[in-house]
Amino acid sequence: MGIKERHERDREAVRRGILDAARELFVNEGYHNVSIRKVAERIEYSPAAIYLYFPSKDDIFFALAEEGFRLLGDPSDLVNHERFATQAPLDRIRAIFWRVYEFSVEHPQYFALMFVDRSVPRITREYERFTFVRDMKSHIVEQIQVCIDATVFPATLDPTVACRLLIMAVLGVATMRLSDRLARAENADELARDVLNVMLAGLQTGIPLQSTVVECAIDETAPSAARVS
Amino acid sequence: MGIKERHERDREAVRRGILDAARELFVNEGYHNVSIRKVAERIEYSPAAIYLYFPSKDDIFFALAEEGFRLLGDPSDLVNHERFATQAPLDRIRAIFWRVYEFSVEHPQYFALMFVDRSVPRITREYERFTFVRDMKSHIVEQIQVCIDATVFPATLDPTVACRLLIMAVLGVATMRLSDRLARAENADELARDVLNVMLAGLQTGIPLQSTVVECAIDETAPSAARVS
DNA sequence: TTGATAATATGAACACCGTTCAGACTATGA
DNA sequence: TCATAGTCTGAACGGTGTTCATATTATCAA
Fold first, then answer.
1. Contacts of B170 in chain A (CB under 8 A)
2. Separation between Cα atoms, residue A64 and residue A15, nearest integer Å
3. Which of A160, B132, B156, B223 is most buried by its number of CB atoms within 10 A?
4. What is the C-alpha separation between A66 and A71, in angstroms, rounded?
């Protein structure tokens, strides 16, 4: 009874083909310049066929966003890297968030899809479901906790909040860079480094924060993305 | 010979009508949901007529971005407000950048158009030409200089760079909020306040910065936006 | 082996989009 | 009165995401 399995494999192969074609177009041309018709032409199927595998164009790019998070997550394996281990706790935090900025430079299309573009907003509601995204987050929070334990950061600091604040600051520079909002004379890398360093210095001062702990529990009541039945 | 003048007035009236219709649609529905056809229908003209007043859809929204900057600039007249004058120098800085965040909440569509959307990138290259934008910037830089003179910020701090860094940090929160990237449990206002305060605290520590002074001179060699002849 | 069934793929169409252009209309100045 | 210049439009071009009846094909039960 391996027929059903073969069918499933075939189906998965076509699905992956669609994703590969979409990714290639998407990385080279950006979300808005990729059309279903172009993807269809690339995989030598009719445009309508794609809708047998994905309910909408957005869902294709939702799947690509997952790829993006994996791509961003991988280098944070450098948490276990020996060079990383020898760094001072604060330098590790710096390295982690600098990595996020670097990712925005190396993979601008993925980055925009994951953090900026307002066309695929469902991404946010979904990506917390991926365990590896949650693992990434707790990895970072752990490292911040190391800093707190080493009295580099004040004991009053909530590592989850600190993580969020750092992400947002870095995201600001990345967004301006990506949306072409920097003057010719400005060096985005220097600005990113400065923003990151100023934030780290600010966190060390121990000024009181308002933000409360963010519960990262998965909301099981939230509707999942529609899937082809 | 007032006929030519009347013609010009009529022309300007239609132009303004297009902008008003576009703005109303745009503020309510967002850039991507506004089509030339909808604008045309609203002003009871044919879609083609719009192209006699604007060379492209983008140029309409470029004009709207100018409106946005005026909208953002006006409240910074509170620089001259008596309550503002009595505030401590650092609180003034805080108020100014908090105002930027508030603007992103009150006018999300304008904000996205001005700082986030990648669809109308020409905006950046152009808006520095508006003197009032430059006035805004120098206003802020002035206030930062007051902080430096009052030894709230270190003398080594470049106020232009500080302004830029603060803008980016605030922009990060605003972007995440607008692109719907915040978890349900997160309070954007609190995060914005924290990011701003952490940045201000960090700037006060006097850590060295890499970023160099940004020359805000207008680049006269840059091509201006195409205009209807 | 035959025939019903379920899955898969497609062409054509729908309703949009930004933009262009030949031609109609109209007010103006000679 | 008439040519002209300015204004406007209908129709079209080539594009978009998506839907659906239809055709093809592979599977499995009879």
1. 172
2. 12
3. A160
4. 9
Q: How far is the CA of B170 from the C1' of C19 (A)?
A: 38
Q: What is the pLDDT of residue B120?
A: 66
Contact between the CB of B11 and strand C at under 7 Å: no
Q: pLDDT digit string (tens) for A91-103?
A: 999 999 999 999 9
The pTM of the full predicted model, rounded to 2 decimals, is: 0.86
Which of A194, A142, A192 has its CA nearest to residue A163?
Answer: A142
B186 CB neighbours in chain A (<8 A) are 164, 211, 214
| C-alpha separations of B77 from A31, B7, B96 in Å | 40, 36, 10
* Sequence-distant (≥ 6) Cβ neighbours of residue B229 within 8 angstroms: none
Bin A222: left if φ > 0, else alpha if -120 < ψ < 50, else beta. beta
Nearest alpha carbon to residue B46 among B55, B37, B35: B37
Angle at alpha carbon of residue B46, lines to B44 and B48, rounded to 5°: 145
Q: Output the CA–CA distances (angstroms, integers) from residue A44 to A17, A51, B48, in the order listed.
A: 10, 14, 37
Hey, how many other C-beta atoms are within 10 angstroms of the C-beta on A47? 13
Q: Does the beta-carbon distance from B179 to A219 stay under 8 Å? A: no
Whether A200 and B202 lie within 8 Å, measured CB to CB: yes
Closest CA to B173 of B227, B97, B63: B97
Residue B222 has pLDDT above 70, yes or no: no
* Cα–Cα distances in angstroms (integers) from residue A122 to residues A115, A228, B172, in the given order: 11, 17, 19
3-class secondary structure, A126: helix
Contact assessment for residue B128 and residue B134, using Cβ atoms and an 8 Å cutoff? yes
